[in-house]
Amino acid sequence: GNSVTQMEGPVTLSEEAFLTINCTYTATGYPSLFWYVQYPGEGLQLLLKATKADDKGSNKGFEATYRKETTSFHLEKGSVQVSDSAVYFCALVQGAQKLVFGQGTRLTINP
Amino acid sequence: SQTIHQWPATLVQPVGSPLSLECTVEGTSNPNLYWYRQAAGRGLQLLFYSVGIGQISSEVPQNLSASRPQDRQFILSSKKLLLSDSGFYLCAWSVWRVQPEAFFGQGTRLTVV
Question: Which residue has the higher pLDDT, A102 or B97?
């Protein structure tokens, strides 16, 4: 079945550092890919998405590119802020099938 | 616009007591509905998944059950809570024919004591 693997956390960075959180997936066909963010005590919010190969999703300075050849959807941000501290989840869905999540990566940004 | 309501926000229940968490969606029809649980510091565990009224898929055999009495209502229940049922419960919806992403409620923090 479909699955998502993302890098182990926690990740700790200094403010203004470059961020990469790796995400790879296993799926037949062409799933839609997502990054969700969860702030403490809250539900998940959609951060960005890509629905076909080579699409780039972007939002709030974050970017991720749908790479079919490497089955990856890595999350990047050029300069992180303290307010970016949260848990980040990579996910995929294929048609009417259930949404599948990675295990989450906790990110802490120090001032 | 679509909204999702999940309640209560927090709940403290004794071991052996029943549970009922409710989730409703407004502004859409025929959504897929999900219940997830998140243990402290852990990832998301899919508990139940529904594609229509009365259609429930159970992902993990355990002490919980789910029902969908109406198109936009999803209820998570237990007859007798265990300590291990403590966690953060999240409801979500999606309409895959319109857009692939799912949208989440604010969650219910359940503590079983």
Answer: A102
